[in-house]
Design brief:
The complex is a heterodimer of chains A (about 110) and B (about 120). Chain A is an all-beta fold and about 110 residues long. Helices cover about 0% and strands about 55% of the residues of chain A. In chain A, the strands form two sheets. In chain A, strands 2, 4, 5, 9, 10 and 11 form a six-stranded mixed sheet that branches. Chain B is mainly β. Chain B is about 0% helix and about 55% strand. In chain B, strands 2, 4, 5, 6, 9, 10 and 11 form a seven-stranded mixed sheet that branches. A four-stranded antiparallel sheet of chain B has the order 1-3-8-7, with no helix packed on it. In chain B, strand 5 and strand 6 form a beta hairpin.
Amino acid sequence: QKEVEQDPGPLSVPEGAIVSLNCTYSNSAFQYFMWYRQYSRKGPELLMYTYSSGNKEDGRFTAQVDKSSKYISLFIRDSQPSDSATYLCAMRRPNDYKLSFGAGTTVTVRA
Amino acid sequence: SQTIHQWPATLVQPVGSPLSLECTVEGTSNPNLYWYRQAAGRGLQLLFYSVGIGQISSEVPQNLSASRPQDRQFILSSKKLLLSDSGFYLCAWSGETGYPNQPQHFGDGTRLSIL
């Protein structure tokens, strides 16, 4: 079993729809949770960085962490064609330099 | 603001040849530095990280090595490349040394193809 599971998709939605992405994990020691966006042939770009459980909102993006279920989510409201990318979840234990990544979900927003 | 540079963007090398990929960070001091490899359809795999000049930690036994000759410079090397070394290599930084819980920021990577 992988430490972090993420559905690779692909996920295709019409412009303006809500995009819902999620990851599950098995290591209860994870405390820091991240979402990265990666465009084709580019490096990952940090979107959201959260600690422990709860919600965090930044513009059209909302990250949720449910540690009791070992489940994290990213919601993108009012999606735009420019949101078309691969979205990677990542997480780490406190004071650990190593990040554990999901495989990434490819999202296409249709104009 | 901080920026991270990686070069070259694309590299094609024959099997058995040496490798040197370079990464530099600007706008910060004493960063933590990382080398990752990303295989198609898979998540990123941490190869090396460094918390200071000359301090390298290896996560995965392999055909590669890393060095940090200066505070903001990180180099990935190999003496003899294998076909299995093909992939997308990403450098990342987080600030500052001794603070592992800071988020990591990535460069735009080097796509390495071994023939």
